[in-house]
User: Fold GDSL esterase/lipase from Triticum aestivum.
Amino acid sequence: MAVSRLSVLVAALACCCLARLAQCGGGGGGQNYTSMFSFGDSLTDTGNLLVSSPLSFNIVGRFPYGMTYFHRPTGRCSDGRLVVDFLAQAFGLPLLQPYLSRGEDVRQGVNFAVGGATAMDPPFFEGIGASDKLWTNLSLSVQLDWFDKLKPSLCGSPKSCKKYFSRSLFLVGEIGGNDYNYAFFKGKTLDDAKSYVPTVSSAIIDATERLIKAGAMHLVVPGNLPMGCSSAYLTLHPGRSRSDYDAVGCLRTYNDFAQRHNAMVQQKLQVLRLKYPKARIMYADYYGAAMSFAKNPKQFGFKQGPLKTCCGGGGPYNFNPKASCGVRGSSVCADPSAYANWDGVHLTEAAYHAIADSILHGPYTSPRLL
Assistant:
């Protein structure tokens, strides 16, 4: 009889613990987020570029984009889901609606990210002579303005907003990568780009602070990916000797540059944490998460080398700027899940899934997301 009572007690405690876990983490432990808001560029955009851009930029609206999960193009710069999609699903939320084509019900979240977006506003690129490279003028500050316009439909008073946003997750990026991409593809040197890092990183921090002042309490700020592993950079900015490449085959100088940016973002985030101790400001190490599968692709299920593109137009990395993914002359691999690199600039759904898992369950978010 005593054993039976003990079994019942253990079972009851187990149910209680499981209920608490479900309550705290949407099935994953941690915070029970009831809504999610996202800002950034093409690594996060779920359709805003497709709605806002001229037809010449609507490559992402063509097959094979979206072939894996959605089986149709959705405006995502990948074959399927992005990190933001996996985070939403992990917390039991619907995939975020793009702001520019949202429905009436937005209380569970909206995505403000735009493919090609920058942390800096257009005058910055006019100043460095790179305006002609911009895909869009819908920069981070424009996205924040969109959020401000949407806010009254989410909560009607300071008290209700505080309660509502205390259970919201804000994803601030990835953003900033395009600021450097436009500069590099305009012919700017690494030294030129290094001089932009304080300004670009400050814009990201200012945006994060603006959201905190608007009521955000839980914010994830991702760093930049290892651009030296991008097949676009490997093709357009090849090294002069073997010593220019690391053991994986990535360009050392460009990866060092990405780490320089990420280090400055982290330094500035630490200052922001001291200023707003009640806010939970998390840095997501996209660089470290991506390098983990670049160094050990088979461990993550990638059968192809991490630098070769699934969808492209030939060459050593299957990247050809004149026959990019979705354009005549390009072709797509049979199994995108075997590749980490999708189109030379963006990653596959499988790679984004690996990054999402790493920041949810691994050591790549500080402090931990869950």
